[in-house]
């Protein structure tokens, strides 16, 4: 390794300064940059390419569920937000308002969508006439604006990219079921595409979406033991139907309010991938979303042109097999290149030197395990797709083990405090009262995340906070 | 045809009321709807699906040219716009401004991007250090806001969707060449994907982009003889480099300004498709962008369940062959369904009745030519992909013939007036003076579109307007 090589990509220590580690990884791997306006960010090509992969995978799954894409205006009349009382209360403080065009003041103030239930509800009222128009399942890929005070790349920025599904049904059961179905779709996406285990379940009243009857969430554990809300689905009941007068003529001849669900995932997922899989060397990307799945690094090619020829040949073969591959033939030392691509989390590195070439092999290095092994050149194209699958599986298993090992059963606030400080989620029983949630938030900066899938023995337990009879088994955690 | 069927989809007569015909087609084929704020529109699923096809086809071509996608903030500091004098003059009157978040006034006013040269220039100044960073070729798919007074669905709305490519080079030649190369990419997209002939060339100073050194455009002829600017590419010179201090360290050790190009196509292209191909029965979609390429209509299926079975079988076979196919088994008359899908411009209709089934054939109807013919059921899957290609080709040829027949050589203003009123583009010689362009605009509401590819005999001619020596051969037309 040439002098200085190891320091080129220097990032903060993940064990002692996780916050700076995260920012360093985001910026130095060129996933993103800060925008000129405070709280905004730029998605650089490497970060945006991850989002493109997530989009493609999610979009395919939505369409398989009978969802069509559409696009609604970003500018919403301010009055629309007011129609649903909880909704406006939840979003008004962070909404950006357009007042002027050129030098002319607008007759009605317009807000930049923080989410689109209202403007879509307004259109649904126009489009839906009878039971024949139901169910209606639309989704949009869009930018939204929520002016948050504290921002961090991917996790919380004043503008972010997301998809928002908005579905309409004749009955509350169907709408609630859709919220649960899409939660499963999100979970499968997190597991299979992001190699990320998630806890899914209903959220408390305090944590639910402003305007929903029920919110379901998926929570992923980051390597510091904090939780990241990685996606939510909402059963909206007839709240927006009543606010926007969305009715249908039912088979029985009666006009009835519709029931709705909405659901969203966002560019936050990129932050989740960084923090669920990253390590002291930087990013570690799951192969299904990695913009570059394999990098070929020729070694000593300057002295041996055959190395370059063979490297290019391997690249062409892998491209034909739909592996996203890059050949790094820059005039830099191998050490520089190793660091460069490790920082960027490329799953597989393929080294090819003169001696390898003589033996008809390459040296393959896995980013996730750091394992290195030789592979006959002739087998690379056959082995790589399977290796990438194995890596995705191993990354999931590793993250799943980490998550399981960092969920602590707690029976008292003292136990909770210790568990949180030790970087754990808390599996606890809770009376269901907002006061206890608020107290835990104030004491430990932790919030309730989702109800535990297993509620069977709740009756036998008492609230972790107040000692009253428990109503729910729920996860508490510090969260992003 | 059942009573009333013909009137279900009634649209205005294309020959006597083209404007209403256009709006009727947009709304009644459910491509779009008006948004609640004046000048905004909603892309309904059928319209958005066309955009998704255009996006996929364009994105593929951009990437083949070494372009990567990225995403920049929508909110731009107002001061950025001011840095390039022509740019602010061009865009300021139609820019929407955000002044408040919640109840708090922002320290600096922010504008919603009308285009992103400024904010991207600001980032490029940070990212570009040396010649090794060049060329840099980024693109973003985004929404933009331009508050226009007169709006029409797809053609001119206060918010629209587009892509904007922003490329950076070391020399003016490379940047100008990129603008011309991308113009060719757009032309190929228009021809091969939208079956739409276009005239391409440089635009006059009056018509160029605010801030560009040169603008190149592609112009498509609509069926009323008006021109639609379907895409533009710009050579920006070092205008934005100077405004945003974008410099690179060249090989010779000197710091130099970069040279840039930018280029965009938008959801306007959907309007172009509607007006280039539509007819008295509504939309006529080119197969490459048609959300539904073939619709199967079973006839008399209620009396003969075998018809339904076979129709479903044909559908499954076509889906496997990647034909976008729909089976319309709704409880409606065949006439209703014929109208429904003709209005929506589906390229191929496949009818299957009991008698057809006995003979082992289907009846195939082409939307573009209205030809009907029988086809052995066994051949459908083999024939359809070729038929769809033939249709795209025939649609292009038809539009190309129409365009050729509606370009008039004019040598005087009287000839120009007559040609324009007859629904033609004018192929004219022009002195190059803004005064003549303005006069033609005032007299005939026509503007210069692009320079003719053939400038060989300009020296022998005089200006169509003032009679002075001609400097250019150029197209004048009324335009959308």
Contiguous runs where pLDDT drops below 50 for at least 5 residues of chain A = 1-7
Shape of chain A: globular
Tally of helical runs of chain A: 14
What's the CATH class of the largest domain in chain A, please? Alpha Beta
Rg estimate of chain A, integer Å? 25 Å
- The total strand number of chain A stands at 23
Would you identify the CATH architecture of the largest domain in chain A?
A: 2-Layer Sandwich
At the fold tier of CATH, the topology name of the largest domain in chain A is BirA Bifunctional Protein, domain 2
Distance between the termini of chain A: 38 Å
**Structural domains of chain A: how many:** 3
Quaternary state, please? homodimer
Nearest-integer average pLDDT of chain A: 96
List the chains of the largest interface with their residue counts.
Answer: A-B, 53 and 53 residues
The helical percent of chain A reads: 25-40%
Major sheet of chain A: 7 strands, mixed
Strand content of chain A: 25-35%
What class would the helix/strand composition of chain A place it in? alpha+beta
Annotated CATH homologous superfamily of the largest domain in chain A: Bira Bifunctional Protein, Domain 2
Kindly report the spatial arrangement of strands forming the biggest sheet of chain A. 3-7-8-14-11-10-9
Key terms:
disordered N terminus, 3 domains, alpha+beta, 7-stranded mixed beta sheet, 480 residues, 5-stranded mixed beta sheet, homodimer, Rossmann fold
Task: Describe the protein.
The structure is a homodimer of 480-residue chains. Chain A is α+β, with helices and mostly antiparallel strands. Chain A folds into three domains: 260 residues, 2-Layer Sandwich (BirA Bifunctional Protein, domain 2); 94 residues, 3-Layer(aba) Sandwich (Rossmann fold), CATH 3.40.50.800; 71 residues, Translation Initiation Factor IF3 (2-Layer Sandwich). Helix content of chain A is 35%, strand content 27%. Chain A is built from 14 helices and 23 strands. In chain A, strands 3-7-8-14-11-10-9 form a seven-stranded mixed sheet. In chain A, helix 13 links the parallel strand 20 and strand 21. In chain A, helix 2 packs across helix 6. The longest helix of chain A has 26 residues. Chain A is globular. The N terminus of chain A is likely disordered. At the A-B interface, strand 2, helix 2, strand 3, strand 4 and strand 5 of A face strand 2, helix 3, strand 3, strand 4 and strand 5 of B.
């Amino acid at each position: 390794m040439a002098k200085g090589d190891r320091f080129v990509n220097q990032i903060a220590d993940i064990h002692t300064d996780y916050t700076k580690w995260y920012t360093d990884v985001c910026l130095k791997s060129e996933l993103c940059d800060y925008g000129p306006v405070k709280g905004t960010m730029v998605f650089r090509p490497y970060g945006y390419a991850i989002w493109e992969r997530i989009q493609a995978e999610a979009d395919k799954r939505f369409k398989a569920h009978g969802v069509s894409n559409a696009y609604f205006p970003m500018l919403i009349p301010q009055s629309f937000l007011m129609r649903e009382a909880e909704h406006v209360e939840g979003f008004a403080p962070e909404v950006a308002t357009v007042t002027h065009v050129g030098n002319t003041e607008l007759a009605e103030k317009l807000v930049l969508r923080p989410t689109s239930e209202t403007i879509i509800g307004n259109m649904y009222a126009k489009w839906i006439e009878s039971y024949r128009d139901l169910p209606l399942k639309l989704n949009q890929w869009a930018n939204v604006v929520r002016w948050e005070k504290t921002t961090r790349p991917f996790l919380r920025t004043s503008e972010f990219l997301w998809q928002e599904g908005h579905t309409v049904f004749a009955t509350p059961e169907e709408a609630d079921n859709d919220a649960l179905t899409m939660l499963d779709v999100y979970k499968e996406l997190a597991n299979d595409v992001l190699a990320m285990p998630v806890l899914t379940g209903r959220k408390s009243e305090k944590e639910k979406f402003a305007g929903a009857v029920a919110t379901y969430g998926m929570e992923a554990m980051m390597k510091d033991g904090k939780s990241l809300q990685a996606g939510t689905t909402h059963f909206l009941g007839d709240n927006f139907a009543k606010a926007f007068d969305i009715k249908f003529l039912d088979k029985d001849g009666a006009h009835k309010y519709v029931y709705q669900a909405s659901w969203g995932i966002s560019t936050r997922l990129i932050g989740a991938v960084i923090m669920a899989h990253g390590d002291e060397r930087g990013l570690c990307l799951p192969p299904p979303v990695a913009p570059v799945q394999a990098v070929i690094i020729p070694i000593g090619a300057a002295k041996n042109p055959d190395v370059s020829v063979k490297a290019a040949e391997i690249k062409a073969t892998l491209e034909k097999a739909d592996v996203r591959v890059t050949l790094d033939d820059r005039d830099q030392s191998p050490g520089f290149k190793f660091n460069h691509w490790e920082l960027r989390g490329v799953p597989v590195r393929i080294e090819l030197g003169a001696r390898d070439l003589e033996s008809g092999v390459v040296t393959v290095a896995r980013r996730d395990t750091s394992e290195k092994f030789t592979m006959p050149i002739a087998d690379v194209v056959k082995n790589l797709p399977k290796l990438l699958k194995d890596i995705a599986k191993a990354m999931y298993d590793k993250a799943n083990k980490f998550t399981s090992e960092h969920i602590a059963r707690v029976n008292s606030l003292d136990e909770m405090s210790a568990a949180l400080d030790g970087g754990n989620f808390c599996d606890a029983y809770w009376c269901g009262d907002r006061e206890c949630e608020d107290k835990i938030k104030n004491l430990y900066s932790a919030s309730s995340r989702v109800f535990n899938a297993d509620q069977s023995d709740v009756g036998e337990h008492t609230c972790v906070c107040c000692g009253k009879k428990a109503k729910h088994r729920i996860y508490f955690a510090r969260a992003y």
